[in-house]
What we know:
mainly beta; six-stranded antiparallel β-sheet; 38% strand; elongated
Amino acid sequence: MLAAVAALVVAAAAVVFFNRAADAAAASITITATQASNGTTTLTYRATVLKAGTIREITMAIPAGTTGRVTSINGTVSSASSTVLRWRPSRTTNVAVGAKLAIPMYGLRLPAGGPWTLGFKTVGTTGATLTSGAGVLQPLRTYTASVAVKATNPIPAQTTNLTYQSTVTKAGALGAVRMQLPTNSTGTLSTINGTLSLGGGYATWKPKAAINVAAGARLAIPVNGVLLSKYGGTMTLSVSATTSTGTVLSSGSASISFIAPPAPMPVLEAAGFAAAPAGCPDSWPTTSAENAKAGTGEWVIPTSMDGPLAAYLTEVSATCGDTVDLKVSSGNPVSVVAYRMGYYGGLGAREIWRQDDVPTVVQEAPTTGGTSVDGKPLRMTTAANWTKTLSIPVDNTWVPGTYLIKVSDGTYASYAPLTVRDDTGTKHDLLIQQANATWQAYNSYGGVSFYTGVDTGSGRLTFDRPYNEGQGSGQYLSLEQGLVFWAESKGLDVTYWTDNDLDQYGGQLSSRAGTIFLPGHDEYYSLRMRAALSQAISKGVNVANLGANTAYRLITYTDGSRRAWDIDRYTDGYNSTTWRYQGDAYASQALLGADYICPVLGNTMTTGSSWMFSGVPTGTTLPGFIAGEVDYVWPDLYKQPGLATIASGTGTCHSNGRGVPMNATAYTAPSGARVVNGSTFAYGCFLVRRCPSNWAVPAPDVNSQKAVATIVGNVTEWVSRGAIDVPADTTAAAIRVVVPKQTLHTNTQP
Length: 750
């Protein structure tokens, strides 16, 4: 036994045991290395005997720098020199010419490097050389675990078979393989050639009997019947193979992606259009013809008239031939004036209808209460108990559009918003949607919004109450008027509807418009709303989401009137209110291209070189444009084929002060429909140079307004596939009457 070979200094290649090349070749010396389970190396020297005789000793060279405690079999080992081991048989060993020798040396620890040429010599008891020569020892091959996890069906919420693969890095008797399961997976699991036990998020496979495995062997353990969680993503799963005593034979981890494609949506019927009621036209004036009429600045309510007067309408949208009731709380006679919002030479509105000296009362206080079917408090605030003040006929003078009904008693004033649809069946180039469901979520009139009041906010919201944002306009003035003003200033063939209309008439979307604009903050979507948008895209309708955080929360209208909607805030708090709580297949990224990441205040956007910025010099800064809330392309969510990031930037998340990425995206659906996700709230407010005061956004200057108008024009032309030609002659037009800044709560998580 060689107790320690720690200071060998003679190079192995210098050891010479023979002189004749012919004899060396005939000796057929080979030297192989294998790794033992304790980490040492076994060298096995093999040779062919060239001369018969009785073996006295065999000398074998080893690489310089070799250490270890060396043993062998059927003989004793000693050191002949600093790089040579001597083996002597423990009994008389006679060999004939052609006999094959195989001498193992155990316990060596080889140095780095190689290959090495090592000598071998067998000497007989008479002193004669029985065989000699040299062989080449290749460096011991080392292995990494090279773990891989493969799935037959890597789709969240579906069942898959997983195969865990790993390379053995140390030889031994395989006793168990421990495999990490995907997060929150379940199922009735099975395997082959062994048994499975489960615990702590792992599956442990054990063979029926220990299996001897060599270093370099490839393991492949199937785990069948894994039901994946509805939440996917890229997961790192570990694999560890051990002996029955716990010696690690292989250990490592691998990443595998479980990405959910868009969830299937119900099919919505495309109901036909009813005949125009008596007195209503079969078609309406063009946008240009309408905006050529005289406008007025009298629609503006100065901040000095903010006060207790409040009003709301019994419908969020109407069409020619409808009658809408108005409910007012004042106690003084009021004037009620309906203004159609548009361009009108920069004045922003045209008076359509009015009634003066309308008597009012001081209405009862709104009530808050209600319980769900399972007894949960809904905390719905409603003013449905108010008495009717006035009925307003929507006749042929009400050109389809967005309206603000201004109610004033001379001291105080407020708006009540109304959208008038074109239900003639005319297909327009562009439809702009009003996000009234989201306005209501942030409405705290009477004390409770979705987010605030009575400790934790409402689980049911109703339109039967005034808005306390935007001087009664909801989020229309702060986020949406700019798109209306811009589109009508360009004379585009544009029409309008609301979230409620998307839910009710969504199957008609492809018959109503070739392109739809979603506004800055269109967060709250019912199943029918989402299905309508998805179905429209599949039918070739183009979508430009000029906002962020769209289709983020899931609501359910309580009945066909769509005057109230429910939201599940009880199952898992704010988490259960989101579409994504239904699973990754329902993330808005799969539908629109990017998904909500964070509320931000106001960060600078620097323009890039994509088509979105054509006509705007690269490097132009837009202070405050990354504002409100922003979207991001999440790497672990489904990305539509061909999805491109057309703009990017960084916002500061106001909930934690950290920087977050913002990505504006574009893709073309298989139907040919084009989809753009603008990923910030600021498009509309920049177009009228008036952004919410609580964003900490500097008032956009004329240059920023021009740049954003150009950007919106580029988006419009690209997303419409050239069907909408945006004239440039009014790009610099600025609204001449500016309403006071309005506050807007943008927090979506408390």
